[in-house]
C-alpha cells in the first residue's frame, strides 16, 4: 500500500479506536455509577418525604436537610422532581462524561460518586488523555495541507509577500473558526437550550473549546429534552472538531510567530521544522562520543536554549 | 548583556507579568462579582427565613425553595449557614478562579454570576490561556537541561546504550513526578482537608494536573479554614509547577517516541528537533519561486505528512 493510503488507514484506525475507547468508558462508568446514583436518588426522595412529613420545620432540621441536598447535588443528583426523570449515568451521558475526561474539558456537572469510579476515572484519563492528544494531532496533521499550506501558497501566488500572506491567512482562519465554532454554535445552543441566552451559548463554546470547562452551562441537562442521547453525541462531535480547529489555529499561530521572529525573540522551541523531517541534513551523529562532547559544550552555557543539545544529538544506536 | 542573562531576564519578566495578570484578573473579578454574590447571599438568607416562617411546608413550596437554593449553589453561593462566612470573590479566591481559567483547569466550584463577569472571563482567558502556555513553555525550556539532557548524558556516560538510557531516564522522571506531584500532595491534602481521604487527594491532584478540573474536590472550600488565602496561593503555586512538570514529562515522552520511531510510525510531527535551531542547515530558500514549486510538489501527494511542505519552505522575505 502506498504511504497516502497507509496514512489514511492509520487515521481511520485511530478514530475508530477512539470511539471504541469512549464506548468502553461509557459502559464501565455506567455499570459502576448507575447503582450508586440510583441509591442516592432513592435516599433523596425519602429524605424529601421525611422532611415534608414533619409538623414543624426548625432551622436545624432545614440546615441538616440542605447539607444532604447540596452534597447529592455535587454528584449530579438533584433533589428536584423534574430532573430526576433521567439518569446522569445512562450510556449517552456516561459517554459524554468519558469524553469530557479524555478531552480534559471536565465540566464536573456530574462526577463519580464511588471510590471505584474515582480510581477508574484516573486510569481511564491516564490512557485516554494522551491518546486523545494523539488522535487530535494526527487529525490536525492531515488538515494542515488543505487549510494552511495550500491557502498560504495561493495567497502568495496571488501576489502577496510571504510574511503578509501568513498574517492574512491566519486572520482568515481565525474568522472562519470564530464564525463556525463560536458564533454559529452559540446561536444553535441559545435556540435549543430554553434558558440560555446567545451570550451563554458563546460563553459555553469558549469555555469548552479552551478546555476550561467550568460546567455552569452544560448542554442536554434540561428535563424532558427530546432526542437527548443524539444531542449529546452531536455536542461530543462538536467538541472534538472544535478542539481540532483550536489546535490547528494554535499551530498556525506558532508557525506564523516562527516566521515573524517572535519565537526566537522569546527563545522558545520553533514549530515549523517538525514537518520537514525527511528533507533535512541528518543531525544524528554516528560517533558515540557526541553525547559527551555535547554535554561539555552545553555545560559551558547551560541556560541559552539555542545552544542546548537535545535528544537528537544522542546516537540512535 | 550575554544571552544567558537575557534568557533569564526574559523568563523573570514573563513570570512577573504572569503574576501581575493574575492579580489584575483577581481585582476585576472581585469588583464585578462580589456585589452580585452579596446580593444573592442576602436573597438566599431572606428566602431561608421566609421558608422557615411559613406554618406548613407544602411539596410545591419546598420544590420552589429547592430550585432557588440549587441555582444559587451553581454559582457558588451555598444556602448553608457555615459556608456563608467567606466570599467566593475575595481577592485570594478571585485570583484562584483567575488561575483556574488561564491554566484551563476550570473547576467551576464558583462561576461568574453576571453577564459582565462572563464577558470578562472570555476576554481574560483569550489572552491568559495562550500567555500561560507561553510562560509554561518558557519555564520547561529552561528546565530541560538540568532535568532531561544532563541526566540522559550522565546515564550514557555510565555505560548505558542511548535508547535504553532515554527509557531509564523517562521512568526515573515519571517516578519523581508521581512521588512529588501526586503522592506527596495527596498526603498533604488528605491531612489539611478534613473530609478528604488519601484517594480523594490523589484524585484531585490527577484531575487538576491533567487540566480536567471536575471541581468535585477543591481545596480551601471548607468553612473556617485557617490561613485560607495563603493556602490558596500555595495551591496555585503547586498547580503551576505541577503543570510545568506534566508538560516536561510529555515533552520527554515525545522526544523518547521520536528516538524509538513511534512518532514516525504514526506519521506525526517530531518533537526533538525544535531545540536545535542554530546548529542546522538552513531550510529557508532565498528563491521566491520556492513556495510555488513546493505547492506543486505537495499537490501531487498531499496526504503524506512526511512530504508536506511547511511554513519554513516559505521565503522569509
What is the structure about, briefly put?
With 317 residues, chain A is mostly helical. Chain A has helices at 3-53, 59-74, 91-102, 115-157, 162-192, 198-209, 228-259, 262-265, 290-300. The first copy, chain A, has a domain at 87-266: Helix Hairpins (Orthogonal Bundle), CATH 1.10.287.70.
Distance between the termini of chain A: 29 Å
CATH architect. name of the domain at 87-266 in chain A? Orthogonal Bundle
Largest pleated sheet of chain A: none
Structural class of chain A: mainly alpha
Oligomer: homodimer
Q: Looking at CATH, which topology of the domain at 87-266 in chain A would you report? A: Helix Hairpins
Helical content of chain A stands at: 55-70%
CATH class of the domain at 87-266 in chain A: Mainly Alpha
For the secondary structure, the number of strands of chain A is: 0
Q: Which stretches of chain A of 5+ consecutive residues score pLDDT under 50?
A: 272-310, 312-317
**Count of separate DSSP helical elements of chain A:** 9
Q: What is the average of the pLDDT values of chain A?
A: 83
What order do the helices and strands of chain A follow? HHHHHHHHH
Largest interface: A-B, 123 and 123 residues
- Rg measurement of chain A, Å: 26 Å
- How would the global form of chain A be characterised? elongated
Instruction: Assess the beta-strand content of chain A as a share of residues.
Output: under 5%
Amino acid at each position: 500500500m502506498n504511504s497516502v493510503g497507509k496514512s489514511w488507514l492509520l487515521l481511520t484506525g485511530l478514530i475508530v479506536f477512539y470511539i471504541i475507547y469512549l464506548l468502553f468508558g461509557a459502559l464501565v462508568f455506567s455499570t459502576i455509577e448507575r447503582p450508586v446514583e440510583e441509591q442516592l436518588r432513592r435516599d433523596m426522595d425519602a429524605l424529601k418525604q421525611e422532611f415534608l412529613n414533619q409538623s414543624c420545620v426548625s432551622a436545624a432540621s432545614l440546615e441538616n436537610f440542605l447539607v444532604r441536598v447540596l452534597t447529592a447535588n455535587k454528584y449530579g443528583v438533584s433533589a428536584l422532581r423534574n430532573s430526576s426523570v433521567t439518569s446522569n449515568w445512562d450510556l449517552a451521558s456516561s459517554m459524554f462524561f468519558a469524553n469530557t475526561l479524555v478531552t480534559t474539558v471536565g465540566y464536573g456537572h456530574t462526577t463519580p460518586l464511588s471510590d471505584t469510579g474515582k480510581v477508574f476515572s484516573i486510569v481511564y484519563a491516564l490512557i485516554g488523555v494522551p491518546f486523545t492528544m494523539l488522535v487530535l494531532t494526527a487529525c490536525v496533521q492531515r488538515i494542515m495541507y488543505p487549510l494552511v499550506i495550500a491557502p498560504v501558497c495561493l495567497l502568495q501566488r496571488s501576489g502577496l509577500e510571504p510574511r503578509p500572506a501568513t498574517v492574512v491567512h491566519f486572520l482568515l482562519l481565525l474568522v472562519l473558526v470564530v464564525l463556525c465554532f463560536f458564533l454559529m454554535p452559540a446561536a444553535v445552543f441559545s435556540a435549543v437550550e430554553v434558558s440560555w441566552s446567545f451570550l451563554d451559548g458563546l460563553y459555553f463554546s469558549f469555555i469548552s473549546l479552551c478546555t476550561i470547562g467550568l460546567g455552569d452551562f452544560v448542554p442536554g441537562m434540561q428535563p424532558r429534552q427530546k432526542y437527548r442521547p443524539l444531542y449529546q453525541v452531536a455536542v461530543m462531535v462538536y467538541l472534538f472538531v472544535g478542539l481540532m480547529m483550536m489546535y490547528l489555529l494554535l499551530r498556525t499561530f506558532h508557525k506564523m510567530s516562527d516566521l515573524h521572529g517572535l519565537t526566537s525573540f522569546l527563545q522558545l522551541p520553533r514549530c515549523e521544522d517538525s514537518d520537514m523531517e525527511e528533507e533535512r541534513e541528518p543531525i544524528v551523529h554516528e560517533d558515540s562520543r557526541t553525547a559527551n562532547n555535547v554535554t561539555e559544550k552545553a555545560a559551558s552555557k547551560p541556560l541559552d536554549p539555542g545552544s542546548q543539545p537535545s535528544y537528537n544529538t544522542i546516537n540512535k544506536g
